[in-house]
Structures are given as structure tokens and as C-alpha cells.
Design brief:
It contains ten helices and ten strands. It is α/β, with parallel strands linked by helices and 339 residues long. Bound molecules: 5'-O-[(R)-(carboxyoxy)(hydroxy)phosphoryl]adenosine (KG4) and zinc ion (ZN).
């Protein structure tokens, strides 16, 4: 019987600085500092993000250790996101982790950000059940939209993905068109609650097999609004909830249509959601409804593990620790890297 592992995990791929401590598959702490500095820019400003990570990383790690009631000498390994993401942001986490690895003499574990979003499902928590392998995961974030077949914690196969914008990007871009701050996804979700999803209909893209496309939807949303605003300058303010509900319904329709196709064609009934957009209420509810209808077992991560967080890096690190898959200290960050 192996001893318990205590892994410190670091996530800094985009605009959240996060640190977590896991005891095997259980999360002891998961601390995230969000960066409000980007709100007024309509998107993440890479230069500002790197600086904010640099400022936040030490206090965030410190707090994660305190909450977990762990001192550095008890740590078994340090796991960190090596990519994909913003290079300057990633470098902060990579450098910090390497220093810790050298100072403490503990193994260094490299984690792929998108694999981590998926493996967040394997975190042990009260009332949470884990998907059985093989399962399908619809991974929807600000940078990715993929349907992934997960055969075990080490084997990921992308069955389909976006050929242009990611689903989260689509949410953020249409929100920006309506004058909302970044990130727009959670705001659209909020306003959509009171809106009519059938207020406006948008054409769905015709993309082959299991791939997605969202850039046409954004353009058609922009043109529709421009036409309406010519007739009534207050169109957006007056109809904000209805617009949010309509665009949200269209995005969710597109996602679920392809997910259903993937499940049928691969004969898999274990279906999971992951990534920032999996926080979306409409997507969560509609997946659960579809699962009942189709006889699937559906898995939706708890809210704290949907958007970027270090707990998901910790669980991925745990699996790599089991196989002693350690990184060299000459390793560097990778802005682009396939799953
Ligand atoms: O996974 P994540 O935190 O970061 C990336 O790896 O990209 O995902 C962030 C994305 C953003 O585009 C954000 O607008 C979207 O997830 N998002 C949502 C919701 N919460 C976050 N989109 C729709 N509804 C939400 N409730
Ligand atoms: Zn992410």
C-alpha cells in the first residue's frame, strides 16, 4: 500500500492564479485569485495577466497551504499547467513550480490544461460520482470546444472540435457586442434567466461530423443587432434578457446536437461536461434532460471545478505521480499543445 500523496498544484494559464493541495484524489484547498483588471478591455490582456500572476502567486500558494494545514516539507510533488495558454502567464507558474521543486527536492509534474478540465471529474468529493471509462467529455472553455473520448486517465482522443471560435469565446464576443464587460458568459447566463429563448432565431452552422463553428453565429448576431439598432437605438437595452436567452439557446443547441451525435456514433452512454462554459445553467439543465431521454449517465462538475482552478491540475498530477511521469527541470511552457 502506497503512502498518501500530498500534491501542490499551480494553474496560471490565463487570467486566474490558482493553487490547490490534494491528498490523493481529495481536495484539501483550492484558492483562486481572479484578475478584475481585464473587465473593461473586453478580453484578457496578456501583459497585464502575467504581471497579476507574478503579484498573486506567492500569497495564493501560501493560503492554499494554510487552508490545507500542510507545511512545504510534507509535500510529495508539485504539479503545474505547462500549456496550452498565454505564454507569459504560463511562465509564471512554470518558474514558480521549478523553484519549489529545486528548493524542496520533490518531483515536478507537468499537466495539460485541457486534460485537467476533464480529469476534474475524478476528484473525490461528497455526493460526487465519477464517470466510468470510456466516457465522452464535451470540453467547452474560452479557448477550446472539443468532444473528447477518454479511455483512461492517460488516453484522450479528440473526436471533434471547433474550426474557429470556442463556445466561451462566442459567449464573450456576443456579450461584448451588447456592451457587457469581460467575461460575458456568466452575464449572459444571468440575464437569460428572465428572457425568452425564442425571441430571435439564428441559423446553425452546417459543419461536418463532430466539428463545431461559432464565428458565423457571432457575425449574424452582430448584423441582426445593427439592423435593429437602426430602427430603435435602445433595442439592446430594452431586449437584453431576450437576446441573451436566444443566443444562449442557440449555442447550447449546437453543442448538444454534436454531443448526441458523438454518443450515438461511438455507442457511449457515460457523458461528461467540462471547462468554463460547463458553469452555464442552460447547458447543465439541458444535458441532464437529454441524458434522461437517451438513457445516459451524465456528469457535471461542481461549479468550483468548471472555470480555471488548480484542483483539476492536482488531480491530473496525482495520476501522473502514480506512473512516476515526472518532468525535467529544463522544461518550458507551451502556448499551443494538442491534448
Ligand atoms: O475554462 P475557463 O475558465 O478558461 C479557459 O480555459 O478558457 O473558461 C472561461 C470561459 C469564458 O469564455 C467564460 O465566459 C465562460 O467560460 N463561462 C461561461 C459561464 N461561466 C464561464 N459561459 C457561459 N455561461 C457561464 N455561466
Ligand atoms: Zn480552462
Amino acid at each position: 500500500m502506497e503512502q498518501d500523496t500530498f500534491i501542490l498544484a499551480i494553474e496560471s494559464s490565463c487570467d486566474d492564479t490558482s493553487a490547490a493541495v490534494l491528498q490523493n484524489r481529495k481536495v484539501l484547498s483550492n484558492v483562486t485569485a481572479n484578475q478584475s483588471v481585464h473587465e473593461s478591455f473586453g478580453g484578457v490582456v496578456p501583459e497585464l495577466a502575467s504581471r497579476a500572476h507574478q503579484k498573486n502567486i506567492v500569497p495564493v500558494v501560501d493560503q492554499a497551504l494554510k487552508i490545507a494545514n500542510i507545511v512545504p516539507s510534507q509535500l510529495t510533488a508539485v504539479a503545474f499547467t505547462s500549456g496550452p495558454g498565454l505564454l507569459g502567464s504560463l511562465l509564471v507558474g512554470v518558474s514558480f513550480s521549478k523553484s519549489l521543486h529545486t528548493a524542496l527536492g520533490i518531483p515536478l509534474i507537468e499537466v495539460h490544461h485541457m486534460q485537467a478540465h476533464i480529469l476534474a471529474h475524478m476528484i473525490e468529493g461528497e455526493g460526487q460520482s465519477q464517470p466510468k471509462f470510456p466516457f465522452l467529455c464535451l470540453t467547452v472553455s474560452g479557448g477550446h470546444t472539443q468532444i473528447v473520448k477518454v479511455s483512461d486517465p492517460y488516453t484522450f482522443e479528440v473526436l471533434g472540435e471547433t474550426i474557429d471560435d470556442a463556445a466561451g469565446e462566442a459567449f464573450d464576443k456576443v456579450a461584448k457586442i451588447m456592451g457587457m464587460s469581460y467575461p460575458g458568459g456568466p452575464l449572459i447566463d444571468k440575464y437569460a434567466k428572465e428572457g425568452n429563448p425564442d425571441f430571435l432565431a439564428f441559423n446553425k452552422p452546417k459543419i461536418k461530423e463532430l466539428d463545431f463553428s461559432f464565428s458565423g453565429l457571432k457575425t449574424s448576431f452582430l448584423y441582426t443587432l445593427q439592423e435593429e439598432v437602426k430602427k430603435d437605438a435602445d433595442f439592446v437595452t430594452k431586449n437584453r434578457s431576450d437576446l441573451c436567452a436566444s443566443i444562449q439557446k442557440t449555442i447550447v443547441d449546437i453543442l448538444l446536437e454534436k454531443l448526441e451525435l458523438a454518443a450515438t456514433s461511438h455507442g457511449i452512454k457515460e457523458i461528461a461536461l467540462a471547462g468554463g462554459v460547463s458553469a452555464n445553467r442552460e447547458l447543465r439543465t439541458r444535458l441532464q434532460e437529454l441524458a434522461i431521454q437517451k438513457g445516459w449517465n451524465s456528469y457535471i462538475p461542481p461549479f468550483e471545478y468548471t472555470t480555471d482552478n488548480a484542483a483539476m491540475i492536482g488531480i491530473s498530477g496525482y495520476y501522473k505521480y502514480i506512473t512516476r511521469d515526472f518532468a525535467k527541470n529544463t522544461l518550458t511552457a507551451k502556448a499551443r499543445v494538442s491534448i
